[in-house]
Amino acid sequence: GEEREITQGDLVHIPPDTVHSLRPVSDHAPIHCFCFAVGVKDSGPVDYTSH
Questions:
Q1: What gap in Å lies between CA 20 and CA 3, rounded to an integer?
Q2: pLDDT tens profile 17-40
Q3: pLDDT over 70 (residue 4)
Q4: Cα torsion for 20, 36, 9, 21, to the nearest 10°?
Q5: 48 or 20: which carries more pLDDT confidence?
Q6: Cβ atoms within 10 Å of 49's Cβ, excluding its own
Q7: Closest CA to 18 of 2, 39, 34
């Protein structure tokens, strides 16, 4: 897998169906993020239990 540190203003693209995570850089660092996804008509339900 890939791991990188991101900073304010960075844009991160995560391809569809990619398992991913987000964690703070230290025990006391806050995480502030804005996330969005675009729905695709007739794509079917997402099953998060298989990860």
A1: 10
A2: 888 898 998 999 998 888 888 878
A3: yes
A4: -10
A5: 20
A6: 5
A7: 2
Tokens standing for 39?
Answer: 């729905």
Tokens of 45: 């339900």
- pTM flag (> 0.85): no
Q: Exposed, middle or buried, 47 (CB in 10 Å: 0-12/13-18/19+)?
A: exposed
- Let me know: does 25 contact 32? Beta carbons within 8 Å: no
| Alpha-carbon gap, residue 22 to 29, rounded angstroms | 12
Contact 5, 25 (CB under 8 A): yes
